[in-house]
Amino acid sequence: MAAGKVQYKYKAGNLVKSVPNKFNPDLLRSEEMIVNLGPQHPSTHGVLRLEVLMEGEIVKQVVPHIGYLHRCFEKHAENLPYNQIIPFVDRLDYVAAMNNEHAYVMGVERMLGVEEQIPKRVEYIRVLVAELNRIASHFIAIGTYGMDLGAFTPFFWLMRDREHILRLLEWGSGARLLYNYIWIGGLFYDIPVGFEERCQDFIKYIVPKLDELRTVLMDNKIFIQRTANVGVLPLDLAINCGVTGPMLRGSGLRYDLRRVDGYSVYPELEFDIPIGEGQVGTVGDCWDRTNVRLLEIYESIRIISQCLDKLTKEHKRTRDFDPQALVPKKIRPKAQDLYVRSEIPKGELGFFFRADGKSDVPFRCKCRSCSFVNLSVLPEIAQGILVGDLIAIIGSIDVVMGEVDR
Amino acid sequence: MRTFEEIYFEIERVCAYGAPVKDENAKPKAVKIDSRDLLKVMTELLENQTLYFDSLSCLTGLDNGPAAGTMEVIYNLYSIPFQHHLMVKVTLPRESPVIESLCSVWKSAEWHEREAYDMYGIRFENHPDLRRILMPADWEGHPLRKDYVQQEYYRDIKVQY
Chain A partners of B135 at a C-beta cutoff of 8 Å? Predict the structure, then answer.
């Protein structure tokens, strides 16, 4: 573009036409008003815009406006070979890229029919890195949630601890956040020598820190008063709205796709599924959801130590092990429809594929993202509350806008 | 847990416009039904006490292109208590893709259907709030259609980069 050329002329009313409000101000009663929250607001966790209909201090209705971070993932996917879509998949839920890759790769492998042939060592490494990333994602969720409610310290602590995970994953894959590490049929590389020991050190380091976190955040009186009995999501509504992940488990249902579907090597691993029990308030409130995330970190640590055990004993590193041995040169699945789902930190990430059997690009690749569906429950539970509680509810849903808008 | 055959039999029982077609190549296994039967079949799938598909996991819109002249809507259903799953496919004509909304059965359909409308222009009848969801409201065309050509300018901004 030539210097000095005006790219975009401001015109009053542009925003009104492109993303119109749902409520018409002329039709409101005199005590009602529309408050616009976002898209540039730190507590909306990205570019989420909420149109809030208020009566005095009480929120009557919330209308989310999304799409500000739409990057045409599905359109791109229809024009790229299967293996080149993986970097795009990373960028859906950009704080848990390994989990996204794992779900996507599993789907393509199932289409190719090579799922059973993947070496156990590869699967254990996949689960190891995915669980490390799950911890990192929950750290972000809990840390930023505390910050939304005015607790600054846990955020810094968790960002510091998350850095250890990012360094580990960077050592393994070469990238800090968006890895492109799990490949169709294998891995980019084997984990580096000494990785297992560093993971053990990390586990030893992190467990006391989590107990500290529990004391300073979860058992904190102010935090409990801000979150207990706020944003209660009843179980039947949660299921009907398609809510998944820690939100669904926070409402009291022991439902985790790692157990239900038993994909990858999860059936061989021992872990519990924490659920919300309403210790400080009602089952399904914001505190329960956050508590489920914290308990899941402990479970992920259990999974990681079991993986490390397997990776150093049964499925030890050998000189001739090549994680790329099964990576196909040409990925051309037979004509079929396939829906694959897996548990990522925020819930159920699903991919629907249609392969036409004649080309190396998917005919259709639909991403069912969990943040998108979880966010759609917000108008249901944010009625008749205060604005401060609205912020508490948004934070407890733990949306990543990259995944909502795709 | 019911087998695919048993679920198929239950669906066949409520279909008024022709028997459903099995597609065992799909994973999970799929049935193709007539679009006029959709609401009745879906209500049955949720309310039948032996099926109880309580979660609509995914709703996919799909365009087969101008040559084929059809569009599809694909529903992925899961039952949490019985742990069975099913794919339901509906084919629509490409010129006038209209189908009954499922918002009255599953609330999760609401945003999924808005997305399918946004990307393919499939109209969902009796949807409470059928607006665009990801694209701006004044965007021209439906981007995931196979014959989509993007507009040259959007608000004086060149679209092609």
Answer: 67, 70
- Whether the complex's predicted ipTM surpasses the cut of 0.95: no
Per-residue pLDDT of chain A (406 residues; tens, 9 = 90+): 456 677 667 776 766 677 888 888 788 888 888 888 878 877 777 888 889 999 988 999 999 999 888 988 999 999 999 989 999 999 988 899 999 999 999 999 999 888 888 888 999 999 999 999 999 999 999 999 998 888 889 999 999 999 999 999 999 888 888 998 999 988 988 889 989 999 999 999 999 999 999 999 989 899 999 898 888 999 999 999 989 999 999 998 999 999 888 888 999 899 999 998 888 888 889 999 999 999 999 999 999 999 999 989 888 888 888 888 888 888 888 888 999 999 999 999 999 999 988 888 999 999 999 999 999 999 989 888 998 899 899 989 888 888 898 8
Q: Which residues of B touch A7 (CB under 8 A)?
A: 157
Contact B135 A376 (CB under 8 A): no
Burial class, A31, CB count within 10 angstroms (exposed 0-12 / middle 13-18 / buried 19+): exposed
Q: Which of A183, A92, A116, A48 is nearest to A365 (CA)?
A: A92
Q: Which amino acid is at B52?
A: Y
**Contact state of A19 with B135 under an 8 Å Cβ cutoff:** no
Which of A11, A67, A241 shows the shortest C-beta gap to B108?
A241
Of B87, B136, B144, the CB nearest to A18: B136
Q: Quick check: bond before B28 cis, omega within 30?
A: yes
Contact assignment for B57 to A9 by CB distance below 8 Å:
no
Tokens 């993303």 found at: A19
| Identity of the amino acid at B105 | V
Instruction: Say if the Cβ atoms of B83 and A338 lie within 8 Å.
Output: no
Which residues in chain B touch residue A239, judged by CB atoms under 8 angstroms apart?
A: 54-55, 80
CB-nearest to A376 from B23, B61, B110 is B110
> Can you count the helices (H) and strands (E) in chain A?
16, 9
